[in-house]
Specification:
By secondary structure, the chain is mainly α. It has helices spanning about 10-15, 25-30, 45-60, 70-90, 105-125, 130-145, 145-155; strands at about 95-100, 100-105. β1 and β2 form a beta hairpin.
Length: about 160
């Protein structure tokens, strides 16, 4: 049986989403120097390129940790699978003739499934507009609840 429940998130990402209060351990995690997770050894050239580009895009957010290797790897694999399917589909018919009549080209299904997977993993990594909005509103909610921020604003 597969894993149940939502994918685990780092404490910093939980804080940015507003599901964890700002604590010293979260601040320590945010101060950590960014070290990207190691690339899986089984990746081919295109997957490797997608990994490098994605890590560079996620670097400024400082939310990527070593535990995110599976999600990031799945995202890169889905991204490359989607690209390959779309390349194969270009210039071809979306329907193919089968024994029982016209059917949807299997590449359409592969592309659609890869797109769905890619968007799911991108949201887990904070790469969709909706997830970034959640992160921004969660961070402001945490800051508003922090009594030290109120005291600091009164000091000025």
């Amino acid at each position: 049986m597969g894993r149940r429940g939502p994918m685990p998130k780092s404490k910093a990402l939980q804080m940015l989403h507003g599901t964890m209060p700002l604590k010293a351990e979260v601040v320590d995690e945010l101060k950590e120097e960014f070290t990207p997770p190691e690339k899986p050894k089984h990746f081919e050239k295109k997957e490797s390129e997608a990994w490098d580009k994605t890590v560079e895009l996620l670097r400024p957010m400082m939310t990527l940790r070593k535990v995110d290797i599976a999600v990031l790897g799945a995202y890169c694999s889905a991204f490359v699978r989607w690209q390959k399917a779309e390349e194969e589909l270009s210039g071809k018919n979306l329907c193919v003739n089968g024994m029982e009549g016209p059917k949807v080209n299997p590449l359409v299904t592969i592309s659609r499934d890869a797109q769905r997977d890619m968007v799911f993993y991108a949201a887990q990594l904070g790469m969709t507009p909706a997830s970034r909005i959640k992160m921004a509103t969660g961070a402001t909610r945490v800051i508003e609840k922090n009594p030290w921020v109120k005291l600091k604003s009164l000091k000025k």
